[in-house]
């Protein structure tokens, strides 16, 4: 939309509906946006208060003025924010306002992210972090950002640095010694060696470039080279690095291999290893043996394992050995793997304390989930909170076990879910917050109504099969899903006005996805403009346009007025 000049003093902002007020804001010049920012911020801040379960706050593009919004509204907020992120253009001509607001908001903040802000540059005092007395984690862009602060809260335990340069014995490292109770700081080391060309190649895959190149302890280097060439290994580190830039064995908490490991045994030598990711195409290495020549040992401390490889054969004995070596596993992801009933049964038998399970396989017979020997049933995974079976179709949904801890569930579909079966299924998942299904076409016209009626805690609903969104479906969603934040559907009869009304009826709703088109809550406020761009009729557009035309003027008009004066 073209920027226009306004007779701002006489423009009737307050007489327009809220969504039209925000549309008008799009017309304003930069100066007028600054002058009229308070009324837009007010609507944003008031809407923010409706998210009663949110404890994260991201402040950006905020120019603070005393007794105007968002300053006045946030100063009166009783929300106990736990996570605070300060973005670009969070500033004020009066540093005291910034300090006063952050002192109020920061009373209960545990995580502070200042990695993309100039807000703290306006604070002259080096003890600014004391405004966050319960701060446990600080996120910054570079190590040098820490030198802005001379005093750190005693509660601070963890620093995360997004961009690390070559670690040397620098003043930044020495500065860390001022943090009394620092336990560790973290970052991701995506390339150990290989030079800039290798980094650029990695950046093309991950969308980021890092110049992080550390020195490796000789023993660690020996261990890594025994598993794979260093160019194919990525590490995640957790360490304080105070006094030395050398990565030690104990510093490695995560490892990712692009190629098949030469040996699994060496994982045992990394005592603090918590996460292992294997990512390679086994078809490029058909001679590769099954799981290290049928000899598998992995560090028993590992809590997260992700395997992505394409295998035409499998060795059940090696799979059992692999699972047996991971008694503390909490998260297991198996993608593009040969995975069948026996594998799933063994997981249910051996990993009763698993928290998250994702299996990409259409070879699982749903009958074995519920109708097998007791030790192999799905109900053994009592602590599971995330289950992703996005390639598996469940045929006997009413047999689903009672799983009160399950929060997130993905299914390829259910072949038949009549009302009573669906009701029983929902009752066995009383705390489900995320549900996705790829097919429910055989479940009748009342599927959405029955589903939403019996899952009152839904925050994300993804219905990925082609469907017609009827008025009955719309009413069911808006009446039953009072906590819904994300709705994704693949509909054949979706109108933009539907999104508008969904946002209007559900104050908790943040995002709607229709056929890969994404709408956010801000689109609700600017829906008139959105509809106009897409050639859709909207009654209030005409009224807005007439108001805009009445109170706007071109440069030529301004020149004429100057000539007349």
From TrEMBL:
InterPro entries: F-box-like_dom_sf, F-box_dom, LRR_dom_sf. It comes from the Eukaryota. It holds the Pfam family F-box. GO terms for cellular component: SCF ubiquitin ligase complex. Residues 10-58 form the F-box domain. Coiled coil: none annotated. Signal peptide: none annotated. One of its GO terms (biological process) is SCF-dependent proteasomal ubiquitin-dependent protein catabolic process. PANTHER family: F-BOX PROTEIN YLR352W, PARTNER OF PAIRED, ISOFORM B-RELATED. This is CSON005913 protein. It comes from Culicoides sonorensis (Biting midge).
């Amino acid at each position: 939309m073209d920027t226009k000049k306004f007779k701002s003093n006489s423009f009737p902002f307050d007489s327009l509906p809220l969504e039209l007020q925000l549309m008008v804001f799009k017309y304003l010049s930069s100066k007028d946006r600054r002058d009229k920012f308070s009324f837009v911020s007010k609507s944003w801040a008031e809407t923010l208060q409706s998210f009663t379960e949110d404890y994260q706050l991201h402040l950006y593009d905020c120019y603070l003025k005393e007794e105007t919004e968002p300053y006045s509204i946030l100063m009166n907020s009783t929300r106990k924010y736990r996570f605070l992120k300060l973005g670009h253009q969070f500033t004020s001509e009066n540093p005291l306002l910034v300090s006063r607001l952050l002192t109020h908001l920061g009373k209960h903040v545990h995580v502070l992210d200042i990695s993309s802000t100039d807000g703290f540059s306006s604070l002259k005092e080096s003890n600014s972090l004391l405004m966050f007395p319960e701060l446990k984690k600080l996120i910054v862009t570079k190590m040098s950002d820490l030198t802005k602060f001379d005093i750190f809260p005693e509660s601070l335990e963890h620093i995360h640095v997004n961009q690390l340069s070559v670690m040397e014995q620098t003043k930044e490292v020495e500065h860390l010694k001022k943090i009394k109770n620092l336990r560790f700081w973290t970052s991701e080391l995506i390339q150990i060696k290989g030079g800039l060309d290798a980094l650029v190649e990695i950046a093309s895959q991950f969308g980021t470039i890092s110049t992080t190149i550390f020195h490796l302890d000789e023993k660690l280097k020996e261990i890594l080279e025994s598993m794979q060439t260093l160019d194919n290994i990525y590490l995640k580190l957790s360490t304080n690095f105070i006094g030395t830039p050398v990565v030690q064995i104990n510093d490695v908490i995560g490892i990712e291999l692009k190629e098949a490991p030469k040996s699994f045994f060496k994982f045992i030598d990394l005592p603090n290893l918590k996460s292992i990711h294997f990512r390679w195409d086994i078809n490029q290495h058909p001679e590769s043996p099954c799981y290290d020549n049928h000899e598998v040992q992995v560090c028993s401390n590992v809590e997260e394992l992700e395997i992505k490889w394409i295998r035409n054969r499998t060795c059940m004995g090696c799979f059992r050995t692999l699972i047996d070596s991971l008694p503390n596993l909490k998260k297991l992801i198996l993608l593009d793997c040969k995975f069948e009933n026996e594998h799933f049964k063994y997981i249910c038998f051996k990993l009763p304390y698993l928290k998250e399970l994702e299996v990409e396989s259409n070879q699982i017979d749903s009958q074995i989930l519920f109708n097998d020997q007791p030790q192999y049933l799905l109900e053994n995974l009592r602590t599971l909170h995330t289950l992703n079976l996005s390639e598996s179709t469940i045929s006997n949904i009413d047999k689903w076990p009672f799983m009160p801890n399950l929060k997130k569930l993905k299914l390829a579909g259910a072949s038949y879910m009549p009302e009573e079966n669906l009701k029983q299924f929902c009752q066995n998942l009383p705390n489900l917050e995320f549900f996705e299904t790829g097919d429910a076409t055989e479940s009748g016209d009342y599927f959405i109504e029955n589903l939403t009626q019996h899952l009152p805690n839904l925050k994300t609903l993804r219905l990925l099969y082609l469907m017609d969104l009827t008025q009955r479906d719309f009413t069911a969603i808006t009446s039953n899903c009072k906590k819904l934040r994300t709705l994704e559907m693949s509909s054949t009869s979706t109108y933009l006005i539907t999104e508008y009304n969904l946002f209007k009826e559900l104050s908790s709703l943040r995002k709607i996805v229709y056929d890969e088109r994404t709408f956010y809550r801000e689109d609700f406020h600017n829906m008139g403009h959105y509809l106009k761009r897409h050639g859709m009729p909207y009654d209030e557009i005409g009224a807005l346009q007439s108001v805009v035309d009445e109170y706007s003027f071109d440069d030529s008009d301004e020149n004429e007025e100057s000539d007349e004066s």
